[in-house]
Amino acid sequence: MEESGTRIVAVSNRLPIRLVHGPDGLEIKPGTGGLVTALAPVFRNRGGVWIGWSGGTDDEDVAGLMEPASREAGYRLYPVRLSADEVGDYYYGFSNEVIWPLFHDLQTRCNFKPRYWQQYLKVNRKFAEITTKHSSETDYIWVHDYHLMHMAQSLKELGTERNTGFFLHIPFPPEDIFMKLPWRAQILRALLEYELVGFQTMRDRKNFIQCLRHISSGIRISGRGPVVTVIVGDKRVRVGAFPISIDHDAFARDAKSKKVADLAWYLHEALPDQQVILGVDRLDYTKGIPERLEAFKDALSRFPELQGKITLVQVVVPSREEVSEYQMLREELYRLVGEINGKFTRSGWVPIHYLYRSLDRSELLAYYRLAEIAIITPLKDGMNLVAKEYCACNLEENGVLILSEFAGAAAQLHRGAIMVNPYDVEGMSNAIHQAFHMDQAERHNRMHRLREIVHHRDIFWWVNNFLEAAIAKDLRSFPAVEDYVPEIPLASN
Question: Is the pTM value of this prediction over 0.90?
Answer without folding.
Answer: yes
